[in-house]
Specification:
With 321 residues, the protein is mainly beta.
């Protein structure tokens, strides 16, 4: 999924100095951002108060949207470098096309995982014949320096491991949770899990104290460590936790995101993750010139042009404001 802001901010993210080594409660409110022609997303990362959670560097939550009489998601071909995209749906279907020739339709609770590496382009759209609702999340994972120029590839995993407890059902999207490991390839220690809580239930989820965590509320009415988290909001939890208390008043869905704090500093602008502003400029120029990223075949329409680079020099602001 593309960042379709016409004037995207360049951000320096990463580093361990601003990571909370102890448990905290930091509620992040979303920024509303238009996506394509018919979708508005809630952007949780990067946020004014928090830019990364482990290697997770971008989180958009969208829907539930009524798309019965609309084309649904229509995101034209656009480029990526230095990251992985994670597509996660609760309702609807999204067809993925990329410059490697990959073609797959991702459905609810299936993992669509694209590793951009040195360079890739892709497009995402609702199929012509689609269901009435669209609801999901699009997430990016920053690749560590040793892997950021890896060969691009796409993975589609319809079957994912599950963890269950009374009142709780968890699907492991990325990484490992309570001994269950996702088949999606991860390049740094992290976890992503979809949590479903039954109405009136309480549960305690095992965590890794060396990870920092955040929880996004997808739907329902849930409390995370005693804190109510409204739909579309995300609670940052810091490090040092061995378990996480959860409670739901009604049927609720959450996304758990976590990982070892990302040690490297990264520069993120538009759809690129790099280490310097010069790398960002080069990637933009190559996209606009038709170099390096290849061609996405099968999408009916033009590619998305890159926004104009900011004139101000990048400022290292760390992981928090």
């Amino acid at each position: 999924m593309s960042n379709l802001e016409t004037e995207p901010q360049a951000r320096v993210c990463g580093g361990r100095e601003d990571v909370s080594a102890r448990p905290v409660h930091e509620l992040l409110t979303p920024k509303l951002v238009p996506l394509g022609t018919s979708t508005v997303v809630r952007r949780l990362l990067p946020n004014l108060g928090r830019r990364m959670v482990g290697a997770w560097c971008f989180v958009d939550h969208y829907g539930p949207d009524d798309i019965e009489r609309s084309p649904g998601m229509q995101v034209a071909p656009h480029p990526h470098t230095g990251l992985q995209t994670v597509s996660w749906l609760h309702d609807g279907e999204v067809t993925h096309r990329d410059s490697l020739g990959s073609l797959a339709t991702v459905r609810p609770r299936e993992l669509g995982l694209m590793t951009a590496g040195r360079a890739i382009a892709h497009a995402e759209q609702s199929p012509l014949e689609h269901g009435p609702k669209l609801h999901g999340a699009q997430l990016w994972v920053a690749l560590p320096g040793a892997d950021r120029h890896t060969e691009p590839h796409f993975e589609h995993h319809p079957e994912l491991p599950e963890v269950t407890a009374p009142g709780l059902h968890a699907t492991v999207i990325m990484g490992e949770l309570d001994g269950a490991r996702s088949p999606g390839r991860a390049y740094s220690p992290l976890v992503g899990a979809d949590l479903t809580l039954a109405a009136g239930s309480s549960a305690r989820l095992p965590l890794d104290p060396d990870f920092e965590y955040a929880v996004l509320s997808m739907s329902g009415d849930a409390e995370v460590d005693g804190v109510p988290v409204e739909r579309g909001s995300m609670l940052y939890l810091g490090c040092g936790r061995r378990e996480l208390p959860l409670r739901a008043g009604v049927d609720s869905s959450l996304l758990l995101l976590g990982g070892e704090p990302f040690e490297e500093k990264i520069v993120m602008w538009w759809n690129f993750v790099a280490r310097t502003g010069e790398e960002i400029g080069q990637a933009r120029e190559e996209w606009m010139n038709g170099d390096r990223f290849g061609t996405v075949h099968g999408y009916d329409g033009p590619s998305i042009p890159a926004p104009t680079l900011p004139t101000a020099p990048l400022k290292a602001r760390g992981r928090t404001r």
